[in-house]
Amino acid sequence: MVRRTLLHAALRAWVIQCWWRSMQAKMLEQRRRLALRLYTCQEWAVVKVQAQVRMWQARRRFLQARQAACIIQSHWRWHASQQRGLIRGRYEVRASQLELDIEILLT
């Protein structure tokens, strides 16, 4: 009778120990998943910030290049407009009248 009681007590203790070990494993797995989730959230936040900074830098470089292109274009247009208005012509003076043939080239 005592052996049976001790055996039942040992089996119950073993069942309780198995249950406790499984609970500890579940809690450890939950902690690992939580830590992984927090890590991935932080990593994504870092990646998003880096992407925003890179986009800002690229946009700034693009705007600088566009501004430089606009300046070059405006100077080129001014130069072209100065060259475009050349007046080429032929002038002849006869007796008392002036015959004037002027050709304006717009190229």
From TrEMBL:
<dbReference type="Pfam" id="PF00612">
    <property type="entry name" value="IQ"/>
</dbReference>
<dbReference type="InterPro" id="IPR039887">
    <property type="entry name" value="IQCF"/>
</dbReference>
<feature type="signal peptide">
    <location>
        <begin position="1"/>
        <end position="25"/>
    </location>
</feature>
<protein>
    <submittedName>
        <fullName>IQ motif containing F6</fullName>
    </submittedName>
</protein>
<keyword id="KW-0732">Signal</keyword>
<dbReference type="InterPro" id="IPR000048">
    <property type="entry name" value="IQ_motif_EF-hand-BS"/>
</dbReference>
<dbReference type="GO" id="GO:0005516">
    <property type="term" value="F:calmodulin binding"/>
</dbReference>
